[in-house]
Request: fold
Amino acid sequence: MNTRTIKIERNTEYVMNYVNLHQKQSILGVFTILVALTFLLFSGSTLAGENMKDENTSNNVIWIDVRTAEEYAGGYYSDAINIPYDVIADNIDSVTMDKGTDIRVYCRTGRRSGIARDVLASMGYTNVINEGGYEDLLKQ
Reply:
């Protein structure tokens, strides 16, 4: 076996490992979405807001868990729906379009919920509160 053949085999092995890694990541992404949808279906909450409180009443609180679907599946605050912080701008209108709705966001430590609060505030939502971390929220 000459040097060129060895290089080609190594490059081929590298490409195959790269493809396998990305296939696994794609499968993990699909699995994550399926887990999130399953929990939404069985928890009685919906992104479409069918079971949410009346959108036109600002006195109702909407709790949003902005963690990943995996974190949400591990436990969540009562009545919270899961909208990860990095897609909240694209999905908030499926929950409420009333910019004055009382919205409470939380995550694991408060960092991602702070980002989500800032995103919602930049969109005109005026009553968004960062409740911080999930564990701290349970202690209240």
Summary: The helical segments are 3-43, 69-73, 88-91, 111-122, 134-139.
